[in-house]
Specification:
By secondary structure, the protein is an alpha+beta fold. Helices cover 30% and strands 26% of the residues. The two termini are 49 Å apart.
């Protein structure tokens, strides 16, 4: 939005040239701005005959839409723009009036206090009254916070950051309210009480907000409790984001898989074919004419292949052989065959755990903490000290296929120290040699799992780095930051290769598409974006799935789907090819982690409420299958192993 003071100066200059009165001139500008040229011409003739003065029509310089609306309402209700004292007094009297009503009317009308409070704030910041804005916020915030629906406190904290009218478009909450009208249903009797009070006490600033900013939907009679629904501002998407999404989602994307996937080398046995579910039998029929040998890749339901458009390294031979063996041992999971789940719980953390990750070797765990440390732990126990020392000495000789790849001796833990702020995210490379960590200290660190030392510190983000994700193929990784950008890096370069710009607020999470050509990001602006690594441009803007910030992401191994989780416990399943929402689920709290099974037909979630959820992502109508409760243990990470065993990482709260 353009500044009100600058617009006022422009208005004074143009009005003096036109010869019209204040209100007449505003009407002329409004008609001209909205291209009502016939109505404008008739109105000019009317003014000329009435006043005997020729009014100069507007030149090319016309005012911004927001300011024109403000002028029209301020002329209709001149008392509504007198400043902070009017806003503060009006809102406080309105609050006292509403809470003093009998129960049924109070419950109906108090839902209006929250959006009215926000629009008062936006008016003050638009009028460049920063000091009055702060005083109004501090004196009234507690009143509306007590009455607001759950989850609104985060919105209020976002609004507290506003300093000038330029911040409105860059603040996700302010932008959402500024460019939309909050919808709420109110009984006719309740609204009649409200409007009579406002007019009797001359609170025209609130009247203006009711008419201009709220989309009030009436129903006859007295209030009905079953119709007391929360305001619905969250579903409104700013117009410019809608336009960008429509243009971006029309682009084609290459969602095929890399040609050398290990599943392509795992031929199905006759026993496996006979034991297939009905859904898999349909896939077999579709692929029977295309493949002489039916491999486990048919479970993907995606036989498209993508040509490498970016340089990438092949996996080491020993890792490739290991993957091939594990694909042969992989279980097919579905609604009828739920996966086994192993939950590793960290004790005595004093609520300081901030991140969890299973290393690529699937033998060891990594956890990040608020004190900036990282801890590596082995899943293999050692019962006595003598056994521990013996296993540590004979580690490389005991089991070359599994323990030989372990980063931590069985039963032991190793601490990595280097960051100077809380650790926010962890990710390990597919070749099992490197661990990446991001932190609030604005850096990303690369740790050697062999040396247990930090080799490189990458710094480019302006503020905390909220997420890091290693590419399925080296040498790339991606980061998500407080500065509203995501960045694509190579471990071979100290600076980012791509800076991905487009989100309106913090980028909170990031993950790679399995073909390594795209990166997905989730943001506090409630959207998910898919970026082309080669060009650095967005190829998908996914909106409408969340009402609060996106804090977790996962791409399915078959490359067709993505899932996103938000702090309000909502989970959205997306079709990346068609850029549409396939399904929505609800978890027990903020969704901190998501992961698909190794064929992409089942989705797992871990949340702050201590639930591990399973969802049928491959069904024509995706749905929730089951959820498992833990004992006061927020789940930081869920991970399907290469054999489709589900691992979860949690922190025991100690209550």
């Amino acid at each position: 939005p353009c500044g009100a003071l600058e617009e006022a100066e422009a208005m004074a200059t143009l009005r003096s040239e036109s010869g019209a009165s204040d209100l007449d001139w505003v009407v002329i500008q409004y008609l001209h701005k909205n291209q009502c040229f016939e109505a404008e011409k008739s109105f000019l003739k009317h003014l000329a005959s009435k006043q005997g003065v020729d009014v100069v029509p507007p030149k090319q310089q016309v005012l911004q839409d927001d300011y024109l609306k403000y002028l029209v309402m301020s002329k209709l209700f001149p008392e509504s723009v007198e400043g902070e004292a009017s806003y503060a007094a009006s809102f406080r009297e309105l609050y006292n009036f509403v809470v003093g009503l009998i129960d049924i009317y109070r419950e109906d009308l108090q839902r209006l206090l929250y959006p009215i409070f926000i629009y008062c704030l936006l008016d003050l910041i638009y009028l460049q009254k920063a000091a009055e804005f702060k005083e109004f916020f501090d004196s009234n915030c507690a009143l509306v916070e007590d009455l607001a629906a759950p989850g609104r406190s985060e919105e209020l904290q976002q609004l507290r950051k506003l300093r000038s009218e330029q911040d409105i478009d860059h603040n996700p909450v302010a932008s959402k309210f500024w460019h939309s009208r909050a919808g709420v249903g109110v009984s006719e009797q309740s609204f009649d009480l409200l409007t009579r009070f406002l007019h009797d006490h001359k609170h025209y600033n609130i009247v203006r907000i009711l008419h201009e900013r709220l989309n009030v939907q009436f129903y006859p009679g007295i209030p009905v409790r079953s119709k007391l629904q929360p305001i619905s501002i969250e579903d409104a998407i700013p117009v410019h984001v809608k336009e960008e999404a429509a243009a971006t989602n029309a682009e084609s994307v290459q969602l095929g898989l890399l040609p050398d996937a290990p599943e392509e080398k795992a031929v199905m046995t006759q026993e496996e074919i006979e034991g297939c579910t009905q859904r898999d039998r349909e896939l077999l029929k579709e692929t029977s004419s295309k493949k002489a040998k039916r491999t486990r890749a048919l479970y993907f339901g995606n036989d498209k292949k993508v040509k490498k458009s970016i340089p990438m390294l092949d996996l080491p031979d020993e890792i490739s052989e290991k993957l091939k063996r594990e694909v042969g041992q992989r279980e097919r999971v579905c609604r009828e065959r739920l996966p086994s789940i192993c939950c590793a719980t960290f004790l005595n953390t004093h609520r300081m755990m901030t991140a969890g990750h299973m290393l690529a070797n699937e033998v060891d765990l990594a956890a990040g903490f608020e004190d900036s440390s990282i801890q590596l732990r082995s899943l293999k126990p050692a019962e006595t000290r003598d056994e521990m020392e013996e296993e540590m000495m004979d580690l490389m000789d005991e089991d070359e296929e599994e323990a030989g790849q372990a980063a931590v001796p069985p039963g032991r833990s190793i601490e990595l120290v280097g960051h100077s702020g809380p650790v926010t995210s962890l990710s390990s490379s597919a070749d099992e040699t490197v661990l990446m960590s991001s932190s609030c200290d604005s850096t990303v660190r690369l740790w050697s799992l062999e040396l247990k030392k930090c080799l490189v510190s990458y710094k480019s983000h302006h503020g905390p780095v909220w997420g890091v994700s290693c590419c399925p193929r080296q040498p790339y990784f991606a980061t998500a930051g407080w500065d509203g950008t995501a960045r694509v890096w190579s471990t071979e370069h100290p600076k980012p290769l791509r800076v991905l710009v487009g989100h309106l607020s913090d980028v909170d999470c990031v993950c790679w598409h399995p073909n390594a050509h795209y990166v997905a990001t989730g943001s506090s602006d409630c959207t998910v974006r898919l970026w082309d690594v080669a060009t650095g441009g967005a190829v998908r803007v996914l909106t409408g799935g969340h009402k609060h910030k996106v804090c977790s992401l996962a791409c399915s191994p078959n490359g067709k789907f993505a899932a996103s989780g938000a702090v309000d416990g909502s989970i959205a399943l997306w079709d990346l090819g068609e850029a549409r929402l396939l399904g929505q689920f609800s978890a027990g709290g903020p969704v901190w982690s998501l992961d698909f099974d190794r064929y992409g037909s089942m989705l797992a979630s871990g949340d702050a409420g201590g639930l591990v959820g399973l969802y049928d992502a491959g069904a024509p109508e995706p749905c929730k299958i089951v959820s498992y409760e833990t004992k006061d243990t927020p789940v930081y990470n869920v991970h399907f192993s290469r054999t489709n065993l589900l691992f979860a990482m949690a922190e025991f709260g100690g209550r």
